[in-house]
Amino acid sequence: MIGIQEIKDAARRLAGVAVRTPLLSNQQLDAAAGGKVLIKPECLQLTGSFKIRGAYNFLSQLGPAEAQRGVVAFSSGNHAQGVAAAGAMLGIHTAIVMPEDAPRAKLDNTRRLGGEVIAYDRYTGDREAIAREIAAERGAVVVPSYDHEFIIAGQGTVGLEIAQQCAELGIEPDQVLVNCGGGGLIAGTATALQANFAGIAVHPVEPEGFDDTARSLLSGEREHIDESARSICDALQAHSPGQMTFAINQRLLGKGLVVTDAEVRAAMRFAFANLKLVVEPGGAAALAAVLSG
């Protein structure tokens, strides 16, 4: 388990590295939701997602010998870019196992940031096993995409910022909806929020077919997705909640919410037309939950 102190320590490491993204409001969104809604647009973050937070917090704590041997990660794209960017800043070689059908922009950007891309078939290969095999051969450190205390604490700085920004606005939020894949972002965010707002409801939002966290919260055990599941939300296609993330989320979260690809597409269109934001599918899931009721 991590606490608010680990998240505050991560925030200090990330000072001058991560962008303090704003909280945005919009009249059309408030009208659609029937209440006051604030958006935390991590699409404006360095590399286009929150992942730089956890990646930099992890890599910045490596010892000199570990840093010299480099790191290996596995990702559909956002964690890959975060790890590559953090490695470039810290002078650490990064190798990332990525699905061969990952969005071209994510593959290209990972390489542009200095990451070594190792492709695999997401439907037949085990990315974690591939990464660990490469790490063993090279003596490198594996950087998990969500199931590690350094990653969770780094992602938790999103929640810390939300709490600080709400205090600045004189607002106490009732509910916070968080896009959820493996659960690292919401585990850290919920930890930070509940340290600041007693009793706040924090809900994971997942795409239909990849609702492993929602089902795990109901059953009390870590559920897995059906291997035939498909979604446009490539960033949220974890096969099961992480062991560490689920232990935290089981304690802190409200029920899971599930959205369809059609609802996600509608949310992406809404974000573009009304918020003037270009949002990838996985980043629009929570907005889709709000817009679809």
Kindly describe this structure.
With 293 residues, this protein is α/β, with parallel strands linked by helices. It is built from 14 helices and seven strands. Strands 3-2-1-4 form a four-stranded parallel beta sheet, sandwiched between helices. The chain has a three-stranded parallel beta sheet with strand order 5-6-7, sandwiched between helices. Helix 5 links the parallel strand 1 (71-74) and strand 2. The model has no long low-confidence stretch (mean pLDDT 96).
**Basic shape:** globular
Name the assembly state: single chain
Structural class: alpha/beta
Portion of residues in helices?
Answer: 40-55%
N/C terminus separation:
33 Å
Number of helices: 14
Largest sheet strand order:
3-2-1-4
Which band does the percent of strand residues land in? 5-15%
The ordered string of helix (H) and strand (E) elements is HHHHEHEHEHEHHEHEHHEHH
Largest sheet: 4 strands, parallel
Mean pLDDT: 96
How many DSSP E strands? 7
Low-confidence stretches: none
Secondary-structure map with pairings?
Layout: H1 4-14, H2 27-33, H3 51-59, H4 64-69, E1 71-74, H5 78-90, E2 94-99, H6 104-112, E3 116-120, H7 127-138, E4 141-143, H8 149-155, H9 157-169, E5 175-179, H10 184-196, E6 201-207, H11 212-219, H12 243-252, E7 257-259, H13 261-275, H14 285-291
Parallel strand pairs: 1-2, 1-4, 2-3, 5-6, 6-7
Helix pairs in contact: 1-8, 3-5, 3-8, 5-6, 8-10, 9-10, 10-12, 13-14
